[in-house]
């Protein structure tokens, strides 16, 4: 009965579905959505200049469309016109992405001093990464305990992580790049190489052996990572009013990938909890048992020490492995691809100088990678840092959201309403000739020349050099004008791991493989505020060492 009524309704409505009516409905919907998000968004202060088509209703419509092709140019204009004179500006909203107040570098200190209860990084990440839909359960990103665990444990456990990575890198490179000393092996640089190899290293640190080599598990982690990225791109294009509907469909992807991965991760966590509890209870069978040094152990130990019973639930820990895969995989893969593109498009002497350093240090350390040896790889350190600058992957970083109901006032006297999103310019700062000499050039050894020179000095000469300043030009040091890992107390806690991982990966690659230079540097594209990685092919051949 109900079915035939519905069929009748559909049949009656069919003649109305003309192209003109559909077009009219789309335009009306778009208009309502734009007005809706305009009304619900925080009011941006009149005193702050806007880039793009400016502020106001009509401009909002224009901004929505031209933002896709012009956001990069708008941030550049804003940086030159306002940031460099110490003034904030507003980057207009796009369909689903809110407007952002871009705070100049001169106010960075103030920005970083604000407590999380005033300016929250977690809340900004929750919004951009779609915490309601992309993380299996909203609580995972509302209370990002996994980030706290990484902040507390990763850097201090690197000594134990390095030999594990060393083992994994040998294994993965042999497997992916082969042992043939005659023929070059070709693969897509991002999808075929970086996105295949990075998940293995990441999971050696998160869940250890043997799971980090289980292809089905790795596929689910990669699938989940792509879910989050797809969500990030999709929600920026979809008007805010539609988010709950689109979100309900989108959230099925992350849930599916969790469902597929938990058959591996839950038993692992359950067993680890069991073993740790037995060990702590003094069970004689566990006298010689050593707890593995990975995220699962760090998570359990931290939750036990802090009395967080909720974070000892095996399901909860199993889910938390997923956002860390997301945080690690795509960022590291894109950074690694950037390094390969920059280095392989540079003069061949760059590859030779990097290879010489890698071979020398590897040999000095007894044909293995050590924390001490890696800390002396100044050239590789510099090439990666320089590539992060030269091939910057974001327009702004250091994102935060105003959490105080009455809003806050910046040192410039601008009042930011509750809910306002703020960030600092990165891409234009990275290319600013007042900050970096010849910023358009990829100068691989920009940061290592002075460090290498310092190493050759005698004690008297060394005493005249500001050694701390030299050290601060290292890959993991963030600064007002160096934001690829963010800055301040919420700067990326994974960067110490990344520095070791990429130095070992590229060092090992140069020692054991010939790598073909790129005939031409592939071009990078930006859509809205997002960088689209260029396509490039990696060609490697095992060297006869
Ligand atoms: C080259 C690789 C990476 C890059 C470029 C990168 C970049 C960043 C940036 C820019 C931020 C701050 C975002 C902001 O300013 O809004 C961040 C935060 C974070 N990253 Fe990374 N990341 C990388 C690798 C990793 C890895 C390997 C891990 C973990 C194992 C990780 C874990 C995190 C976490 C947990 C945060 C949030 C920190 C907080 O809010 O307190 N990242 N990352």
From TrEMBL:
Heme binds at residue 492. Gene3D superfamilies: Cytochrome P450 (1.10.630.10). Keywords: Heme, Iron, Membrane, Metal-binding, Monooxygenase, Oxidoreductase, Transmembrane, Transmembrane helix. Its cofactor is heme. SUPFAM superfamilies: Cytochrome P450. The chain crosses the membrane at residues 20-39. It comes from the Eukaryota. Pathway: Mycotoxin biosynthesis. InterPro entries: Cyt_P450, Cyt_P450_CS, Cyt_P450_E_grp-IV, Cyt_P450_sf. One of its GO terms (molecular function) is heme binding. The keyword S-adenosyl-L-methionine does not apply. Belongs to the cytochrome P450 family. This is Cytochrome P450. It comes from Lentithecium fluviatile CBS 122367.
């Amino acid at each position: 009965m109900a079915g035939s009524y519905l069929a009748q309704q559909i049949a009656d409505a069919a003649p109305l579905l003309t192209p003109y009516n559909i077009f009219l409905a789309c335009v009306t919907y778009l208009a309502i959505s734009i007005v809706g998000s305009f009304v619900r968004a925080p009011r941006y202060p009149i005193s702050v200049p806007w880039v793009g088509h400016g502020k106001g209703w009509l401009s909002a419509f224009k901004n929505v469309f031209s933002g896709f092709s012009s956001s990069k140019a708008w941030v550049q204009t804003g940086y030159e016109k306002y940031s460099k004179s110490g003034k904030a500006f507003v980057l207009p909203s796009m369909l689903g992405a809110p407007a952002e107040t871009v705070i100049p570098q001169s106010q960075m200190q103030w920005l970083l001093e604000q407590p999380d209860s005033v300016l929250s990084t977690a809340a900004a990440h929750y919004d951009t990464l779609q915490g309601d839909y992309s993380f299996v359960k909203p609580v995972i990103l509302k209370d990002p305990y996994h980030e706290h665990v990484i902040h507390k444990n990763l850097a201090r456990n690197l000594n134990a992580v390095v030999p594990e990575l060393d083992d994994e890198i040998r294994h993965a490179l042999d497997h992916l790049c082969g042992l043939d000393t005659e023929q070059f092996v070709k693969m897509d640089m991002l999808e075929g190489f970086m996105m295949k190899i990075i998940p293995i290293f990441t999971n050696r640190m998160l869940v250890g052996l043997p799971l980090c080599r289980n292809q089905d598990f790795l596929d689910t982690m990669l699938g989940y990572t792509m879910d989050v990225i797809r969500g990030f791109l999709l929600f920026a294009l979809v008007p805010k009013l539609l988010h709950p509907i689109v979100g309900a469909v989108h959230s099925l992807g992350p849930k599916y990938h969790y469902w597929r991965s938990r058959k591996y991760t839950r038993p692992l966590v359950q067993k680890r909890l069991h073993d740790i509890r037995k060990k702590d209870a003094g069970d004689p069978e566990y006298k010689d048992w050593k707890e593995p040094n990975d995220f699962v152990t760090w998570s359990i130990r931290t939750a036990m020490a802090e009395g967080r019973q909720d974070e000892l639930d095996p399901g909860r820990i199993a889910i938390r492995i997923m956002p860390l895969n997301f945080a690690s995989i795509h960022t590291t893969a894109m950074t690694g691809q950037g390094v390969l593109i920059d280095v392989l498009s540079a003069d061949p002497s760059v590859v030779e100088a990097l290879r010489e350093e890698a071979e020398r240090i590897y040999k000095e350390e007894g044909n293995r990678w050590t924390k001490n040896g890696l800390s002396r790889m100044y050239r590789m350190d510099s090439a990666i840092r320089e590539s992060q600058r030269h091939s910057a992957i974001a327009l702004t970083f250091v994102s935060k959201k105003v959490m105080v109901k009455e809003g806050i006032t910046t040192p410039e006297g601008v009042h930011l309403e509750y809910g306002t999103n703020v960030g600092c310019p990165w891409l234009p700062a990275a290319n600013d000739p007042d900050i970096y000499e010849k910023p358009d050039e990829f100068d691989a050894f920009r940061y290592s020349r002075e460090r290498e020179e310092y190493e050759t000095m005698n004690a008297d000469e060394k005493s005249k050099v500001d050694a701390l300043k030299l050290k601060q030009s290292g890959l993991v040091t963030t600064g007002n004008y160096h934001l690829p890992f963010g800055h301040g107390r919420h700067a990326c806690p994974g960067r110490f791991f990344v520095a070791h991982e990429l130095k070992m990966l590229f060092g090992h690659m140069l020692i054991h493989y010939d790598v073909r230079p790129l005939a031409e540097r592939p071009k990078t594209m930006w859509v809205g505020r997002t960088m689209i990685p260029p396509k490039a092919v990696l060609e490697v051949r095992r060297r006869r060492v």
